[in-house]
Structure formats: C-alpha cells, structure tokens
Amino acid sequence: MALGVFQLGFLFAAAFITAIINAVAAVGGGMVLFAIMLTVLNYAVVIPVHATIQFWSSFTRVWIFRRAINYRLIGIYSITYIPSAALGIYLWKLIVDYSAVQPVIKIIISVYLVMFLFDWTIKIKTTDRTKLILYAGAWSGVVALTAGSPAPVMAPFFIQAKLNKEEFIGTWALSGITVHISKFPLFFFIWDSLTFDYIWLILLLVVGVVAGTYTGKIFLGGISETLFKKILTSVLLLLATKLFIWDGIRPLIFAS
C-alpha cells in the first residue's frame, strides 16, 4: 500500500467528519468511512483495519457517555452477537474473494432498512427491550463480518427500544466495541498483506475519529430529543439509499 499526501489527507478528513456524524446521530459515520476506505484499500483489508479505527471512535464515545450507557443491554446483546459473529467469520472466508455477492447483500439490507423506516410490512411489534437487543445481536454479527457494518440491521431494534439520545449513543457505541473486537481475528487471515504503512494509516485515522467525536459532542448539546430522532432517521435513510444505489445497483450494472 502506497498512499500519497492527498489520499492520506482525504482519509483523515473523512475520519474526522464521519466521527462527528457518529457523535451526533449515533450511527452512519462508520459505514460512510468504510465505503470511503474501500475506494483506496482492498476489501479484505478494509474490514479489520476499519474495525481498529472505529474501535477507538466507539471507545471515545463510550468514555464521553459512560454515565448514560445501559450496561445490562450490552450483556444481553453479547449473548446472541458472539455466535452470530462466529458464523460471520466463517462466511467472510467464503465470500472474501467472491466480490459479486457483496452488492446483492447490500441491496437486501437497504430494502429491509427502508421498509422499516417507512413502516412497510416490516414491523417490530415487541417493545420488550431484552428481546429487541437479543434480535439486534443475532442479526448484526453475520452482517458485521460480511457487509462491513451492522448499523442498518441493528438500528431498527435500538430505535424500537426507545432509548434517550445519550443512552442511545453510549449504548450503541459500547455495542460497537463488541462488533469491532470480533473483527480483529480477520487480521490473522490477511497478515501477509499488511505492511507498516497500515500502522501509520491506522494511527492517523484514529487521531481523526477521536478529534471528530469530541467535536460532535459539542454539537450534540444543542440538539433536542425530537431533533435527534429526526437526524437519526435521516441518516439511516441516506445510508439505505447509498447501499441500494452506490453499493448495490452500481457494481452490478458496471461490473466488468
């Protein structure tokens, strides 16, 4: 990997801005950063490298919102996430060299997310937080290890759990740490592809996401609960659109 000054600056700016998004809306920033990193790095390398960077982004949010986190829900989330992630690692090994399956996965996820946001057919009827978070863990492990980010499948369950904005952001961030740690074993499979350049890239982008998170916390103070929910829904809708058009339809139509 050999990146120029412009590419490194672009990635740093992306890390900073997407961390602000995560601090304000809780979700979305990591997925956008993942997509941006795919433009300059190999898919097999992006998932674990991105996980390392986002681990520190999530850790910073956990520290900032530590008093608002619902730690009980994180324990529940882990019960189903861990076996789901194990299955995801197995599936990653199967599809990592078969890029054609990625657009299909992302189209399916985008349709699911839009149907939930607009209340079309897909309805989560239960309001029991325990069940909701168990479902979130069960779905997100596989998606995290194959599609890169579990946010589109996790978000509907977290939204239905009706957490306040600080509780949502902090609890989501701590669940994110669980997600990112589960991706670290993928380094074992790509070890031969790594160079010291990746270490410097990771350090640079970690600085970007930490700075962006603290900047986003400043903005969050002026956002009401109602506005927070509107921002969250808007970000998820943009993510669904990106998944469907840019990550799904575009590669299928223009695949060589």
How helical, in percent, are the residues?
A: over 70%
Major β-sheet annotation: none
Distance between the termini: 24 Å
> Which term fits the overall shape?
globular
Radius of gyration: 17 Å
Distinct helical segment count: 11
Order of helices and strands: HHHHHHHHHHH
How much of the residues is beta strand, in percent?
Answer: under 5%
Task: Supply the number of structural domains.
Answer: 1
Structural class: mainly alpha
Low-confidence stretches are: none
| Number of E strands | 0
* Overall pLDDT confidence: 83
Q: Would you kindly provide a written description of the structure presented here, covering whatever features stand out?
A:
The longest helix is centred in the last third of the chain and has 30 residues, at 225-254. The chain has helices spanning 5-25, 29-38, 43-64, 71-95, 101-117, 129-146, 151-160, 165-183, 186-190, 196-220, 225-254. Helix content is 79%, strand content 0%. It has 256 residues and is mainly alpha-helical. Helix 2 (29-38) packs antiparallel against helix 3 (43-64) and helix 6 (129-146) packs antiparallel against helix 7. The chain has one domain (5-254).
